[in-house]
Specification:
single chain, alpha+beta, Butyryl-Coa Dehydrogenase, subunit A, domain 1, Butyryl-CoA Dehydrogenase, subunit A, domain 2, Butyryl-CoA Dehydrogenase, subunit A, domain 3, 3 domains, eight-stranded mixed beta sheet, 11 helices, 8 strands, 52% helix, globular
Amino acid sequence: MKTGTIDWLARADRIAPQLAASAATHDADDSFVADNFDLLKREGFFKAHVPAELGGGDATYAETCAVVRRLGASCGSTALAYSMHSHLVAAAVWRWRNQNAPTDGLLRRVAAEDLVLISSGGSDWLKSAGEAVKVEGGFRITGRKIFSSGCMAGDLLMTSAVYEDPEDGPTVLHFAVPFKADGVRILDTWRVMGMRGTGSHDVELDQVFVADAAIAGRRPQGKWHPLFHIISMIAFPLIYSAYLGVAEGARNTALEVARKKPQDEGLLQLVGEMENALALARMSVDDMVRIGETQSPAPETTGRTMSARTLAGQACICTVERAMEVAGGSSFYRELGLERAFRDVQAARFHPLQEKPQLRYAARLALGLDIDG
């Protein structure tokens, strides 16, 4: 796994106690994990996956997934918000290496300026959201982007909007918007069940100007585009590594409690069920990471990744549920941390493709039907 000169996993382990120390406070007061992001930046994690020849830390893709997983065991919010930046970097790295795409400029900036990239993909997905109106030299963008994890620390919002092209019809435009640009505003909306520290507030775009030259891509609205097969293959192993980390942290906490209890058959069965659920979560995420490392983007690759995404999410949720049962009544107290892990892991349900759309995609693929049907 390790090819560069920095042991990023060892570095993640070293800072893990500091991340964990503030997790409960951020959860309790709905505050963004700003101090944890500052620590990650000081330690070079935001440029870790940028290739060395572009000025970065040269962490491998698998190593970056493993880092997210380690962070998740300490603070789910930090890990999930960091995974959103990481998957944007990873997609740019993949395209630069495999398609000779001109993403090296962005990657050099990430490395040189320690940029934090923010994704609006969870709220946009295939249809996108927001309006792009053609004006002289570019477009005026209006829209509201929900689930913008980490936006309070963000430098660039990697987003999209829909342009009603007079020839091609509804067309999704992809572009980056600096958070300092005129018309960009963060709305204080993140009051939620779990992953409270991600700071996934709404970002409002009010007549934001984007130059023609800044449009990085165009695609038909609502259709599976090759870009989204790349995103599916690269992004979701990183995202679900965060949930696997939460599950592993909960399991470790539950085992500490269980070792102090009488070892009756009921407890042993619960521990065994927890271990089986975690094994499925690990196998599913490991399969996703292997696909991201070795496969090519295609409808079939997306199908395998999204099936693993559903299984991983279900298994992570089940692991934390069993961890609470293993720990018993003490798990109901916030101080133990399992109550927070239980709430945090529920967010695994809501990333694309959610279970029912994923089942539909899998079925259409198996039957040889058009995945856009």
